[in-house]
Amino acid sequence: MPTPDDAALKSLEGVTLSIRDLLSRWGFRIRDHASVPQIRLDLTNVGLTTVPDFATGPQDVEVEVVPIALKCDAGVGTDTGDGSTEKDSTDAPEEAVGKFPQTAMRVQDLPCAHRVTSITPDETLSVAMGRMVEFGYSQLPVIDASGTLHGVVTWASIAHIHATGRRMCLASAISSEYETVNDAAHLLPVLPTIRAHEFVLVRAADGRVIGIVTSADLAGEFGTVARPFFTLGEIERRLRRCLGRVYDDSDVQKVHKKRKSVDEMTFGEYIRLLDDEERWAKLGWAFVDRGHFIGLLGRVKDVRNTVMHFNAPALRPEQLDLLDSFVFMLRLYDPDYRGTSTD
Questions:
Q1: CB of 244 within 8 A of CB of 285?
Q2: CA distance 216 to 209
């Protein structure tokens, strides 16, 4: 779907809608490194923004599209009195460290929920079995040309034909023992159903079967989804420990007057803290280039914000590699960390 034209964008002024609905105006389903900047830029170009910021919070939260000047008049951003400006927390797309996402994962966030291999009722059982072997599937939906679901062929239903001595044909192998879920359903409540039946079929809002989620899919997705959270958590803890050893409240308050310790700072504030030659020297990392480290930290911050706010369950390989290399670097400077600290 193309970007809405200026007239369509300006017509949004004063409109209250859910974040999910706002994304759909651009044809986006999730917030990520592509959708959020595009929407923000398009709105800014016509003098609009949203309150609260559409880049944070669950997608079912409602936001109001308002003129940028109105948001500024509301007092977002205050003068600190020392020439710097501190943004109000509602305006900052980055949350403080240690606060992980509250957005619930939905079935539609799994890639497998958007792909399905099926067979039609007029094909043969041998074709069905061949397709299952070819793709390594344990089940195959039977869907006709109109999109109507007739049932599911499984290895268990095929074995049942042999056990009962029935005629070996597709009609005999079609089973009605399956469960369907809506693609917009929250994932966690669906997990017991997947565990009990080993799979669920996924329906779109119009009733079409658009995907299938199996126990094997969940096992594979867990590593993809969980890995960034665990790695980012380790990065945050190690970074806080490294910086907390050398920077006191006077250093912190030169970056943000309202912060009292390193533990209260955001990643963006860490960058500003370290982007000073005298403060950097206090770390004692003689063989680390300050500019290179700050550049890496900035990239980690962007990945972290994607995980925190954009509800994108899968990161690109290069983003995962960045997190791995950065945490490896921090381990060299925080060697006494044993994963048991409650800091």
A1: no
A2: 19
